[in-house]
Amino acid sequence: MSANWFRRRFLPGGPLPAPRPPRPRASPVPYRRPRFLRGSGSSPSTADASCRPDARPVRSPVRGRALPWNAGYAEIINAEKSEFNEDQAACGKLCIRRFEFGVEEDQEWLTLCPEEFLTGHYWALFDGHGGPAAAILAANTLHSCLRRQLEAVVEGMVATQPPMHLSGHCIRPSDPQFVEEKGIRAEDLVVGALESAFQECDEVIGRELEASGQVGGCTALVAVTLQGKLYVANAGDSRAILVRRDEVRPLSSEFTPETERQRIQQLAFLYPELLAGEFTRLEFPRRLKGDDLGQKVLFRDHHMSGWSYKCVEQSDLKYPLIHGQGRQARLLGTLAVSRGLGDHQLKVLDTNIQLKPFLLSVPQVTVLDMDQLEPQEEDVVVMATDGLWDVLSSEQVARLVRSFLPGNREDPHRFSELAQMLIHSTQGKDDSPTQEGQVSYDDVSVFVIPLHNQGQGCSSH
Amino acid sequence: MSANWFRRRFLPGGPLPAPRPPRPRASPVPYRRPRFLRGSGSSPSTADASCRPDARPVRSPVRGRALPWNAGYAEIINAEKSEFNEDQAACGKLCIRRFEFGVEEDQEWLTLCPEEFLTGHYWALFDGHGGPAAAILAANTLHSCLRRQLEAVVEGMVATQPPMHLSGHCIRPSDPQFVEEKGIRAEDLVVGALESAFQECDEVIGRELEASGQVGGCTALVAVTLQGKLYVANAGDSRAILVRRDEVRPLSSEFTPETERQRIQQLAFLYPELLAGEFTRLEFPRRLKGDDLGQKVLFRDHHMSGWSYKCVEQSDLKYPLIHGQGRQARLLGTLAVSRGLGDHQLKVLDTNIQLKPFLLSVPQVTVLDMDQLEPQEEDVVVMATDGLWDVLSSEQVARLVRSFLPGNREDPHRFSELAQMLIHSTQGKDDSPTQEGQVSYDDVSVFVIPLHNQGQGCSSH
Question: What region holds the PPM-type phosphatase domain (chains A, B) (predicted)?
């Protein structure tokens, strides 16, 4: 199957609202010309600005400035793989309005004052495919979706325990007991808000791409600090890890056709019509050919973790639903990830077989209690797109972090320099501090988020 | 919903083959009269005999006899919860025939000789519900299914790496490379065989129960040692743990409506007709009533790990697909487990809503490399039905194991005594060596399997 698997088409139907349509770069990003992002004390809209594809590098103006919050530091590099930069990033302060119950919708704004904000921080990486459009839309939209979802449940978040009824009024005296027995905590509302925000953003991207006649999709990796906790939500093959002096902890899992094989095969088992008779649901070690017919070959079906043998029939010679391994594994011969945003119109080349039913926009969310962790000066979270992890393992990145930070304690830009150094390590440069790993030919984006003092001064109830 | 949720009925169709129909006990097992099992050097059929419901206690005859293999020791107790003992067990030697390629089916037996057996050991616990019939059938059948499934792949198991084609003849020179790249190992064939054996056994139980006009289901927990590895396959809420001097390791996960909520809700989302308009797919902290209408209440849907709020509509007042928490959680108001064997005819009381589409017979399989583990004298696996784990945690059981074994090093029956002691600990007896935990009112079955020397002399290639 060709790599050119996107077909532009217009679906019937009236025009959809398209605020802030994506504006792809007029010219390609120069090879290895890094675009630096550094957060600053900001309203959420700054996250929009800093990640707009036409935003200028903002590194110099804020160099050395005391930042009112530990913004984290990003470096993004375009590997000339595509005409436009398919990696996009966003970061900023997340301000969640609180409003009182019973206040009319149009009066809601009047009740605001600075003390009524619940604030957190937000970092996001989006790795686009089939063009940068979905990644740009996601970088412009997801934090707004998240803020909206959090505002819808904020009263539950600030209570000792989320009330069964959002009004806070018990319908039955036993209601708090049921909530406690189910073990529902404030953090479950943030997890739920992240899950809903990804879904909402996916719908927005679908509408906006359709309205503007564009196509594409992207992975999404988001970190949020709120009320002393760090939330990492992931849909795709980016990765976040926690690096401490004597610990490397994964904060996300990758979602690829291989890691989600059973879910994807299960869907094809329940709805065989999704494969339109063109694909086989079964997994084999390689694609079967005519001379395999009648042989007993290794196979796996949806309910199996292990392998068994089956007698090859004609239908087994079809192209496999998931084919290839490692970086070459593809869903329906088309896509290397199994979760992400966008791709609403993506079909298998020259067929009507849609990818979307197999693709999920739902993230997996990990929660890290920062109060319990008691982060030290050099504890960081490293978030990066697959361009980094293709050539460096989590342990290799941790070694680079640990070898870099202690020698640069006085440098106010050390986290930014660390992000740069990690990217340079993937480029096979002469000045690279290490020759670990291989050379990456993919776009690479890295956030380094220092955790020390991250929880302080970030939230006001 | 009543506990009397079984309806006997006969499905249309001709008679099905029913070898060895289950023979339920004619009289109930006396309260707290334990039935002891002790394995012996045996052909696989001994496992049948030792677990037949009419088998007599076999403890005394083998006391003190040197066993040719570490059989493990079981104790089963009937808690008078049901008229017949719904807990059943099986254990024995697993002998897998090897036959040569190209030998005709009817000549296959002629090629056998003792050296052509691959041998392992097998332990299984089945916790029945709705009567003992399914558990008895499973104890009589599953090891035969497993032997058959292993024999179908044994040539792949004894190769350095399973060949892509079972004939061993490469169709293409690159075949071994594909198998290696997929990381397929001999142990994956055993995992696949266990998965297929559970499915096959489930089909046998379905046919035999239908043919004999009986009903019911059971959980299944199986441990197998083969080629230096321990495999634990679990479908239900029994549990196996590894207890070492300084480690307690879970070897299984429990499958209940709560732990499998997302899979079950997902199926109802894809096939809403399975609920026949009688149930709501959504989870709430408690069942909603009329006075919740219009309120915003906490809820979770299939795609959510976290919680959110929704405005209550009329359809949310239906009975929840999964209701209650902990031991009280029920699938469709009927069943406390979400995986197991049998239950083919089980319907929600007074409806045509079937449980089976939501129930899986597929086990989760854990593999423990015993060669790598280098088991010490007092390293054991404890397998038990939920009656034990309802009142003792894994850590409490590990403490009891560690406090019991060192003081009884000279006792040749110490593992058997340990199994008894663990059960007594759940019965609130005066002579119980500990007052940890609470009293169990459920059937309780325990296997204690010493791991030391378990891999030796068990397999001949």
Answer: 100-451
